[in-house]
Amino acid sequence: MKSTYLKEHGKVIEMVELEEEQKWFNIKYVRGNFRKTAYVIKHDQETTNNYIENFLKDCHASEEIISDLKNPLKKGSKGIETSLQEFVNFLVKTSSIHIMGGIALGLSIFGGYQLGAKMDENLHNYPSYTVIGLLCGLVVGCLIGYVMMYKYLGILSKKGKPKIKTQDNRKNSEEAVEWPIIESTLYDVRYAVRQFSDDLPKGINRTILVKEDNSINFDRLAPYLHGIPSKPFYMSKETFDIFEEKDKNIPPIIDKVQKAVNLFYKKNNAYPAMPYDSLHRVNYFQLLQDHYLDEMPGIELYITEYHGLLTHLKPQKKSVGG
Predict the structure, then answer these.
(1) Other C-beta atoms within 10 Å of 39: how many?
(2) CA within 20 to 30 Å of 45's CA: 34, 236, 242, 315, which one?
(3) Sign of the Cα pseudo-torsion (259, 264, 269, 271, in order)
(4) Hey, which residues does 215 pair with through a beta bridge?
């Protein structure tokens, strides 16, 4: 059984995952970039609770999330008497099913025998119909028993499935807070995106902020900006460059060309740069010729020294000599 608990503290998300195994609890604590995991062997309920609480305190977990974990642990504890009673109930139910199945099988065989014997008596063909009646009764009885057991086992399997309990307070918090409309600069948005990225768990990058039209989803950034910008901003999914509304056509072009450049480099182990070009402009003709692009982009892009990332900013020419 696995339970997840979430708390939002401003712009930092706090999460605890508690997974109950047969002999221990697996507990994982995450807060921002900090994460810690521990295994707690099952003892009596009070001792187990103390171990888990001490682990959370060592992680400097909030009192709210610690209190959330106490109640489920108490509810999940079962005494020996409760377990014994459940076992007895299971035996009674299973025995009842077997008895009912046996009765159904016996009645089916007896009914088939009586029907076959009656037909043999009337048609003077003993024992053909008697044997057929016995076999039919046996088949019908087995089918009835199978259906009864199938339904019973199906009910047991449904009851035995664990339910994952998730307490997600982020959604409630986001719905409860109405962020004001604010004036934000390009620098403000870049700084907020950088902070947001630093707080993300490993394996998740800042592209979750970008919508289909490359505009930034400020509902996620609002805790970092303390509001919603009055004007939209746009981001490249490939280079993470951020643009104002007047340059909103640039991010889709960068994304398209960057993907083409990456594919070209993967195949040729070289970047499609203009020959003898000190600015390292992207050679669109080469990408078009090799079918990495289907149309000529409307702006010049330049290959930087940072692992082939592109930029729309024209680099400064390096001066030669003193």
Answers:
(1) 12
(2) 34
(3) negative
(4) 234
